[in-house]
Amino acid sequence: MKKILFAILVMAAILVVPLFANGGSDDGEKVYVFASDATWPPMEFVDENGDIVGFDMDLLDAVAKAAGFQYEVQNTGWDGIFAGLANGSYDAIISSVTITEERKAAMDFSDPYINAGQILIVPAGYSGGEMLSDFVGKKVGVQQGTTGDFAVEEVSGIDRRAYDDVGLAVEDLVNGNLDAVVCDSVTAVDYVAANENFKGKLEILGEPFTEEEFGIAVQKGSDELLSMINEGLAAVFADGTQAELVEKWLR
User: Fold this and answer.
1) What sign has the CA pseudo-torsion 92, 93, 94, 99?
2) CB-based burial of residue 24 (10 Å sphere; 0-12 exposed, 13-18 middle, 19+ buried)?
3) HSE of 32 in the Cβ direction (CA atoms, 13 Å)?
4) Which residues contact 171 (CB under 8 A, 6 or more apart)?
5) Distance in angstroms (rounded) separating the CA atoms of residues 36 and 22
6) pTM above 0.90, yes or no
7) What is each CA distance from 96 to 24, 42, 59, 125, 200, in whole angstroms?
8) Residue of 239, 209, 200 whose CA lies nearest to 66
9) What are the angstrom distances between the C-alpha of 235 and each of 56, 64, 98, 239, 242?
10) Residue range 234-243, pLDDT digits in tens
11) Less CB within 10 Å around the terminal CB: N or C of the chain?
């Protein structure tokens, strides 16, 4: 009898798991799924415990608590992250996504939560021009599909080298295979100042050459979720949480 009862309980558990995985919680409240490409420290990355952490994760947690919704995070590669949002694989993206007019045509964005422009990373001791145009004829690494990639493509004559992960580009820069890497200033600070593998080997060149705002992306027409996200963002700006997270992760 005990064996039969145990088998029934196991089958019941198997049936329940997919319900939670598809956006349900144990109290019946919807759980919104947020995709994030966790390869962009200090914004989003996987720590030594295997957890996704960073500025965006702390911000999302604060926003969700302020607005009163439940969520989970799905680690998703950048190359397919927008397609996944379009086909409903998840409800939103929080992954250092720059708000652009082109992207706004395909998805809706929250209010901006931080401003980060593109900047050049070069080897320590670099001497030369500080403009992107000064790298015509030189090898410049970018993460494919990012706004840094788009900026490099606009300058004719740069030998653009595209990578799936900006970290791979930075490694190639340290190894002497590139002349520079373009990425957002937030990510650049982490690689140059905080990453133990690269300390003393790299420097940030000049000032950001773009003005870019990050936002949380949702499917077109997801008005209820977007409203809750913006409500939460307004609250974390008003109570100083956003400023505290900037100090924690970006200073």
Assistant:
1) negative
2) middle
3) 25
4) none
5) 17
6) no
7) 26, 10, 12, 29, 26
8) 239
9) 16, 10, 21, 6, 9
10) 999 999 999 9
11) N
